[in-house]
Amino acid sequence: MNLRLWTALLLLGAANIAYDVRAEDDAMADIADASIEVDEGDATEGLHSFDERNGQSPQISQEVFAQMMESISPECRAAIQESPEDASKLSDECKEEVQSTLHRLMGGKPRDPNDPLTPEVFDKMMKIIPDDCRAEVEANPNDAAKISDRCKRRIQSTLETLLARQKKKAEAPPKAEEPTKPKGKQRRGKKEPKDNTSALLIVLGFVATAIAGVVGYAYVLNQKNAALQGATGPVDRTTQKKVSKHKKEKDMRRQQAAAAASIN
Known about the structure:
Elements: H1 4-20, H2 25-31, H3 40-45, E1 47-48, E2 59-60, H4 62-71, H5 74-82, H6 92-105, H7 119-128, H8 131-139, H9 149-171, H10 197-232, H11 237-263
Antiparallel strand pairs: 1-2
Helix pairs in contact: 1-2, 1-6, 2-9, 4-6, 7-9, 8-9, 10-11
Organism: Aphanomyces stellatus
Protein name: Aste57867_25260 protein
Keywords: Membrane, Signal, Transmembrane, Transmembrane helix
């Protein structure tokens, strides 16, 4: 059975313990071993990870690996058998199960699922550390003592920064939704109908004044005709009526035209 895939998972479990006891630089340096693949020959002899509790390197034997395969769920076991060399194809739940089971079989405490040191944080750390530190880790996957103190401190400080940033992001209150601004110009409401009472009264007053003027004009005209009749003799009543009627119609049309113009 190919064990190189599970070396990274177990060493990531060791990284969780190292995070809780950050004062021990050797434990933090061994965290970087999670990204290193180990040959099958090394896996047969026993894969190593740093144990900060006693300073010794516990071995992952084939017996322990077989016990792990028997302890995990059938779904996770099938996924491992399908992808024995590619951990990226495994679900996060399966990775957690494998890591916790190996850690328990090796005598450690089961990994807390709420532990902030996730595989994603570890991957970010490996990308951030300097190239020379990454090269040291890759060159010494089984011997943390060969990693320089400077790289150990850099790994520790990088993890602390990433974990603090992750904690701050998790504790940040959710942003309140800002009220969406209306797009474009808002449509104006319908204009209320204007009060035309005043205008109507003005028009009616103008019409009444015009009618009064016409009546007064007709009265004056009749007075003139009566005076003219007394001075020059009798006037033909029919002719007088026709002239008066024609004059009234003309004045009425003028009045209607003036009223219409004032309304417009």
